[in-house]
Structures are given as structure tokens and as C-alpha cells.
Design a protein that fits this description.
The protein is α/β, with parallel strands linked by helices. Helix content is 39%, strand content 14%. The chain has a single domain, classed as Rossmann fold, CATH 3.40.50. It has helices at 26-35, 39-45, 69-80, 89-93, 99-110, 125-135, 159-162, 185-191, 213-239; strands at residues 3-4, 56-60, 85-87, 118-123, 142-146, 172-177, 198-203. Strands 1-7-6-5-4-2-3 form a 7-stranded parallel sheet, sandwiched between helices.
């Protein structure tokens, strides 16, 4: 089980990564026009890869948004630098945080792409929404959750938060702080029945994910490797026409 261990600190602030004049794919172009009417503004904010097998990340913030915007910023910087496309909370959902609304929007957007790995990344409640959408049939390649809200502090168990994780068929990577007030990995694995598709990895932090740039580098590498694994599976499906 991987554990990230470094001194806790706020991540370094940065720009959007290496953005150039990449040619847009037709599908991404339509999505860009939908999300960003100004194409020049869109070009500054997104890295569109020519490689049709590169992953697309759809990010859902937690209910504390925009206070948790540092998570999206750290991941966008690192994942777009690798050639992925990354759509954030504001670009997809604006300030909308309601569970059912975001779940429906994520389901719709995930159907936009064909034979591209579409991976939802959610922090806290965003991870819950993404896993629910996948469980209910959204065609997501996989889900990554940072700080999954298994059980609210001081509150009784709520099966709506965790029941679907027992039978979810979509691969789920949960990066969970070992001091998370919504339960650590060890506590969650002891308390809940989880699908074999669910993998939980310890991170040396709490629920807020104020961590060092070095920790973000390691987390981004884990997410990227997770995405590449799903990309290989998707490529095989496309080649065999399934």
C-alpha cells in the first residue's frame, strides 16, 4: 500500500502548464464551444492533445468550493503537462454544487467522447457524485476520488454515501488522507464492504489536501498511471469492436 510522506504545506501556485497551438479534435472542439464561447480564452485554459488515446479528465470540486480550488489547480497543471485534456469545476458546472444536478451533467458530458478514456476526478463530495454517476451507468472509464466522504464527522452512518461502492463495476482509485476526519483508508476498509474495483491509497494529509508540490507530483503520477491502465483496456475494446 503506497503512503506519501513529506512535510505538509500549501502547494506552489502555478500557471496552466504548457499550452500551445494544439489542433483540436472535432469532439473536443464542440465541447470547448459549449463550455467556453471565446475560443481564445479556451485555448489559454486547456491543453487539447492530438493523440486520440490521451485521457480526458472531468473535475468535480467539493462542497467547500472555491476554498478547495488548490486541488484542481495542482492537478490541472500536472496532468495537462502530460498531454491530457482537463475540464474543471467552473468550466463544466460553474458554481453549481448540488448532487443530483452535477451527477446528471457529468453523465451527459461523459457520453460526449467515444474511445477516449474519460476519467472523473472528484474531491470530497465530488468523488461521491462521480462514483454514483459511474454506478448508475455514466460511461466513465474510471473515477479518482481525493478525500472520499465515507462518514461525516459526528454523524450516523449514511448508506447513500457508501452503499454503491460495494457493487460498483467502474474502476475507482481513492486517495485518502490518513488523518481524514471522514475516515482513513484503514477505517473505511474495516467498516465497509467494497467492490474489488475500489482501490484506496493512503496519503499523508487530512481532508483538505493542503500538501507539498512534491506530494502533488506523486499523486499526479499515480493518477496518470491509473489513467494509462484504463486507456490500454479501452484501446483493446476499440480494436475488437466491443
Amino acid at each position: 500500500m503506497s503512503v506519501l510522506r513529506t512535510k505538509k504545506n500549501r502547494p506552489a501556485r502555478g500557471g496552466w502548464g504548457g499550452l500551445g497551438d494544439e489542433r483540436l479534435t472535432a469532439t473536443e472542439g464542440r465541447l470547448r464551444e459549449r463550455l467556453e464561447p471565446d475560443p481564445l480564452k479556451a485555448q489559454r485554459h486547456y491543453a487539447f492533445a492530438n493523440n486520440m488515446t490521451n485521457p480526458i479528465f472531468l473535475y468535480l470540486a467539493g462542497n467547500s468550493f472555491p476554498k478547495d480550488a488548490h486541488v484542481e489547480e495542482a492537478l490541472r497543471l500536472r496532468l495537462t503537462a502530460r498531454g491530457a485534456s482537463f475540464f474543471g469545476q467552473r468550466q463544466i458546472f460553474g458554481m453549481q454544487l448540488a448532487l443530483e444536478t452535477r451527477k446528471a451533467m457529468l453523465n451527459e458530458l461523459s457520453r460526449t467522447f467515444r474511445y477516449r478514456p474519460v476519467i472523473a476526478i472528484g474531491r470530497s463530495s465530488g468523488g461521491r457524485i462521480a462514483t454514483l454517476a459511474a454506478f448508475e451507468g455514466a460511461p466513465l472509464t474510471s473515477v479518482v476520488a481525493l478525500g472520499y466522504p465515507f462518514c461525516a464527522p459526528g454523524q450516523p452512518e449514511d448508506p447513500a454515501r457508501t452503499g454503491h461502492l460495494a457493487n460498483i463495476k467502474t474502476p475507482v482509485l481513492i486517495l485518502q488522507g490518513d488523518m481524514d476526519c471522514y475516515l482513513s483508508r484503514a477505517e473505511a476498509e474495516k467498516r465497509y464492504q467494497l467492490s474489488r474495483q475500489v482501490q484506496i491509497v493512503d496519503v499523508d494529509t487530512d481532508h483538505e489536501f493542503f500538501i507539498t508540490p512534491e506530494q502533488w507530483d506523486v499523486i499526479s503520477e499515480q493518477i496518470w498511471r491509473h489513467a494509462l491502465g484504463q486507456r490500454s483496456h479501452l484501446t483493446c475494446e476499440a480494436e475488437h469492436g466491443s
